[in-house]
Design goal:
Blueprint lengths: L2 H36 L5 H13 L2 H12 L4 H15 L2 E4 L2 E4 L5 H18 L7 H40 L5 H14 L6 H8 L3 H22 L5 H9 L6 H6 L4 H18 L16 H8 L5 H30 L44 H4 L2 E5 L2 E7 L1
Antiparallel strand pairs: 1-2, 3-4
Helix pairs in contact: 1-2, 1-3, 3-4, 3-5, 4-5, 4-6, 5-6, 6-8, 7-9, 7-12, 9-10, 9-12, 9-14, 12-14
Length: 401
């Protein structure tokens, strides 16, 4: 398997895993919080908020499991990738008082740990024979988890480095509104990358106009991806990216770096207008954009004037302006200047890609063994990397890549 195809599978699994884990809280979290404050006597709303928040803590496991599925692993192997990814993600912190969950961890290190787990499992294959169930979790999960823990402090330098850059821009007094433009552009690109925008925002404590610009950049990215996705993907993908699952387009951005152009143009202009409108935010709100209305609510609390004045401004800068600019830039880049094709926004369905040139297809249900005991229907571990099924009706015929 080529490195490109290997990376495609890692990114596909991570992208879908992020959607599954983060969308429930992104869409309904703020609503449940509002209802809990509005009706404190009804504990259901607070409980529902705890549920959706709890779901997002499972993102590293979900990402690992879906990456394992991308490589045709059986159930046991897939779960091993998931558990190793959780350990290497840094989502848990060991303290004298016990173990604490500290968010969803570092997504880059999660994917790195999952990659190591995939390679270890593929190398072990069937070498353990009847002892597979005993030693495979130790080798596959233990080695990959150890690698993830060792690399975590260094991988985190990526997040801290980006945070230092954003902080330097925000503190440059001479930049004026240009700072808002640059921060909006940075966060627009960052939200479609493996780097956590929320992690960066919290790490540097970004607030005020800089936080508002960060949220507007993310809102602009959502508009760009939704507009680009409208004609090449189904409604589920389009609504997902618009409502907050922009990271599901990570693979597209890495394959087609030209996507940075519309992201930068739309976010830059949106950030500029937001600076003139006085859009602000807090460290806790920066990194969310309009997902769950976190950004607009934080901006509203920092704006002067009645609701009749504040609300139209928020609707314009968070929705009308970025969507309008996204449509205009998309039309210019695809139809007038022909810089790129709208197909760069096509999101591949869940499934292990059979080749570098072929579109991804869902895994054949026949290859998903429950416990790995059915060797005729389960994709063998030592063939998952080097071979792939080329017809949906045959699980024994494969072609070398």
């Amino acid at each position: 398997m080529s490195p490109k195809l290997f990376l495609d599978r890692i990114l596909n699994g991570a992208a879908v895993g992020i959607v599954v884990g983060l969308v429930p809280n992104a869409i309904t979290g703020e609503l449940f919080k509002f209802l809990a404050r509005l009706m404190p006597s009804i504990s259901l709303w607070a409980t529902l908020n705890e549920v959706v928040v709890g779901l997002q803590f499972t993102v590293p496991v979900i990402v690992g499991v879906l990456i394992g599925m991308q490589f045709g692993f059986n159930a046991v192997q897939t779960v091993i990738v998931g558990t190793a990814s959780f350990v290497g993600s840094g989502a848990m912190d060991f303290t004298p008082d016990g173990v604490m969950l500290v968010g969803i961890g570092d997504l880059i290190n999660t994917m790195l740990t999952a990659s190591v787990a995939v390679l270890v499992l593929a190398w072990v294959g069937k070498k353990l024979g009847s002892l597979t169930i005993l030693f495979l979790p130790i080798l596959g999960g233990g080695i990959a988890g150890l690698v993830g823990i060792l690399t975590l402090p260094y991988v985190r330098y990526v997040t801290t480095g980006v945070g230092a850059l954003v902080n330097a821009i925000a503190q440059q007094q001479g930049l004026g509104v240009l700072a808002a433009v640059l921060i909006a552009m940075l966060f627009a690109v960052m939200i479609v990358s493996p780097i956590s925008t929320v992690g960066v925002a919290l790490a540097i404590g970004i607030s005020g106009p800089a936080s508002g610009a960060a949220n507007l950049g993310i809102a602009a990215a959502a508009a760009v991806l939704a507009v680009g996705s409208f004609r090449v993907n189904n409604a589920g993908v389009t609504w997902s990216v618009f409502l907050g699952a922009m990271k599901m387009m990570m693979g597209n951005l890495l394959k087609f770096p030209v996507m940075v152009l519309p992201l930068a143009l739309v976010s830059g202009i949106t950030g500029l207008v937001g600076a003139f409108f006085g859009i602000t935010g807090t460290p806790a709100s920066a990194g969310f954009g309009h997902s769950g209305l976190v950004g607009p609510i934080a901006a509203a609390t920092g704006m002067e004037g009645s609701a009749l004045v504040v609300l139209p401004k928020l609707v314009i800068v968070y929705f009308v302006l970025p969507i309008g600019l996204a449509i205009l830039v998309h039309w210019l880049c695809t139809s007038v200047l022909k810089i790129y094709s709208e197909k760069i926004y096509a999101f591949a369905p869940v499934g292990a890609p059979s080749s570098e040139d072929a579109a991804d297809e869902p895994l054949d249900p026949k290859t998903e063994a429950v416990d790995g005991t059915d060797e005729k229907t389960a994709a063998p571990a030592d063939a998952a990397i080097g071979e792939s099924t080329d017809t949906p009706t045959s699980t024994t015929t494969s072609t070398k890549e």
